[in-house]
Structure formats: structure tokens, C-alpha cells
């Protein structure tokens, strides 16, 4: 296994997995020429036996290797929740294989021999995608932490606010005064660092799936309350 040129956590790194030593050396040299760190493995099992660096990057993966194949490794990594983008690079690929790999979440599928620039473009695009994914994940963790600071009542108010319900409608549903709703709403907006309702909506869109599910369920209830209140008003 080759050593990375840098241990800087934010520097991108390409993880090369190929049983051909000449291929690994050639790819490492090519990546080094454009300033991309790399580490290499001769088998899929070697990857699974190693703690991979927590850095943005991509996995360049051969398909046919002794033991676990590249496609097998792709499945195992997915099960483990390792979301680093995969670029397949193989001399034994076909259309059916590439379709299967892409359906399973591969970022790209290249066949050997491949032009240097085509390879570098694929790696750069995959790394950019991983950087964006990590950034979105960091935002989700931050906003989830903010959500956890809300009181149960503030969470109820938030759910109605993102559903489009007005303060009067929220007060009617929760059985509290409109002034109290405004107080909870103000506290909730401050805790969520939301500048406006539209900003709050965007913040909620980045929350984990289980919280979003709660919000959508409450949102449907909030809309029903709003419609009911409107009917009562015009009755």
C-alpha cells in the first residue's frame, strides 16, 4: 500500500484498488503530477481491513480482482455506510456491467486503456461530489443540533410554521393565545438561526430524514387545520 503525500484532513485523496502493481504505480504517478494524494491497495479485502482516511476523495476501483470483486466491494462499502464516490476503472467491462455499477451508485465507469485527461476528469468530478456531500452532511449535523435545542412546544410551532399556517391558526390548533404563539415562534426562529420563514424552510430541508418525516406529517396536519380555520371563518 502506498503512503499518502499529505495528512492534511481537508486535502483530497484518491484510493486506488487494483491487483496490478504497474497500474497502481502509473495511476499514483499521474495523480501526483496534478497534486492529488493517493493510497493504493492490491485487493478489496485489504481495503476492508484498513481504516480509510477521513478525507474528501474517491475510490478508483478495478472490477476483476482475486477474492472479492470490485462490484462486491461496492456493495460492502454501501452496507457499511461508506459513501465515498467510486470510479470504476477496468479492462473487463461491458455495457451491462457499467449499468449495474451505475445503478448501485458508482460515480463513473471507465475502461482501460483510458486517456490520462479522461481519468483525471473523472477523479476530479468525483472528489468535487464528495466535497459537496461532506459539506451538506456538516450542515445537516449543525441544523440537527439546533433542532434538538427546541422545546416540545417550539417544535410544534415550527412544524405549523413550515406548513404555512398563520399564528392565529396555530393558536387555535394548540389551544394557546396568539401572543404565546408569537413568543414561541420568535424563540424558535432564533434557536434555528433562521432569518425568515423561507430560510427556516431551507434549514428544515437539510435535517435528517427521520426529522423531515415528522415535519411532513405535521405539515399535512397544519394544512388541514389552516383549511378548517378558513372554512370556519367564512362560514
Automatic annotation (TrEMBL):
Residues 143-208 form the HTH luxR-type domain. Gene3D superfamilies: 3.40.50.2300, Winged helix-like DNA-binding domain superfamily/Winged helix DNA-binding domain. GO terms for molecular function: DNA binding. Residues 13-127 form the Response regulatory domain. One of its GO terms (biological process) is regulation of DNA-templated transcription. Keywords: DNA-binding, Phosphoprotein, Transcription, Transcription regulation. The keyword Transcription regulation applies. The modification 4-aspartylphosphate is found at residue 62. InterPro entries: CheY-like_superfamily, Sig_transdc_resp-reg_receiver, Tscrpt_reg_LuxR_C, WH-like_DNA-bd_sf. Pfam families: GerE (PF00196), Response_reg (PF00072). PANTHER family: DNA-BINDING TRANSCRIPTIONAL ACTIVATOR DEVR_DOSR. This is FixJ family two-component response regulator. It comes from Rhizobium leucaenae.
Amino acid at each position: 500500500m502506498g503512503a499518502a503525500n499529505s495528512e492534511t484532513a481537508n486535502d483530497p485523496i484518491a484510493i486506488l484498488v487494483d491487483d496490478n502493481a504497474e497500474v497502481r504505480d502509473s495511476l499514483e504517478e499521474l495523480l501526483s503530477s496534478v497534486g492529488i494524494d493517493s493510497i493504493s491497495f492490491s485487493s478489496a479485502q485489504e481495503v476492508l481491513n484498513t481504516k480509510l482516511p477521513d478525507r474528501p476523495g474517491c475510490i478508483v476501483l478495478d472490477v476483476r480482482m482475486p477474492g472479492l470483486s470490485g462490484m462486491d466491494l461496492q456493495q460492502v462499502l454501501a452496507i457499511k455506510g461508506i459513501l465515498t464516490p467510486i470510479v470504476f476503472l477496468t479492462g473487463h467491462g461491458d455495457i451491462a456491467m457499467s449499468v449495474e455499477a451505475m445503478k448501485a451508485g458508482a460515480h463513473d465507469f471507465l475502461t482501460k486503456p483510458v486517456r490520462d485527461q479522461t481519468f483525471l476528469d473523472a477523479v476530479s468530478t468525483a472528489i468535487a461530489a464528495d466535497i459537496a456531500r461532506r459539506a451538506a452532511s456538516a450542515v445537516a449535523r449543525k441544523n440537527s443540533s439546533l433542532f434538538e435545542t427546541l422545546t416540545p412546544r417550539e417544535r410544534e410551532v415550527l412544524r405549523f410554521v413550515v406548513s404555512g399556517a398563520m399564528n392565529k391558526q396555530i393558536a387555535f390548533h394548540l389551544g394557546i393565545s396568539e401572543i404565546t404563539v408569537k413568543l414561541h415562534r420568535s424563540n424558535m426562529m432564533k434557536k434555528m438561526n433562521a432569518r425568515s420563514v423561507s430560510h427556516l424552510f431551507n434549514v428544515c430541508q437539510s435535517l435528517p430524514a427521520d426529522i423531515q418525516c415528522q415535519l411532513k406529517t405535521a405539515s399535512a396536519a397544519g394544512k388541514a387545520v389552516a383549511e378548517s380555520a378558513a372554512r370556519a371563518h367564512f362560514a
